[in-house]
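Protocol step 4 of 5: obtain the predicted structure for the target chain.
Materials: sequence only (see below). No template structures provided, no constraints applied. The aim of this step is simply to have a reference model before the mutagenesis design in step 5. Sequence pasted as it appears in the construct record:
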Amino acid sequence: MFIIKKPLNKLYGGKYLIDEYSVVYNSVCAGGQLFFGEDRHLFIDLDMESGQCYGISIILDAFVFCEIDYKLEKFSTGKLFYNNSLLKNYQFCMSKDLLCQCHVNSTNGLIMIGDPNASAEPINFFDDTFAVIEDGKIKLLIVKVGEEIIQRIKNIK
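Step 4 output (structure tokens):
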């Protein structure tokens, strides 16, 4: 279950980068990982003690991206937490809440994973990172990325 809390201070942040293996990652690492699905191609870095979520890592070559028209016009800011009793016992955990459909909006530099038609307002929980949460479940992840990452997605066969 995901919980949103209003931030008491500035959100953590870091720049999204891409490596030679087409892995998009953030320069901030919290030590634990929440994987979406059993293949481990998509995960959120999180603090295993508190469950606070940070940046997202995506292995681009593992997905097929469809271009869609999407604008990130309205959002609120908050801290995102994953509440699971197993967090403190392991360095990673798994969630099957998110439907791993991948979309990209090249014009706006957005990667979207999940349901782009999810109705709740996105929450900016980390620099350039947003989540749509409905009934405690994550429905959509949105990441703002630079032109280099968008070009790499366009070149995936």
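Step 4 remarks: The mean pLDDT is 84. Residues 147-154 form the longest helix (8 residues).
Proceed to step 5.
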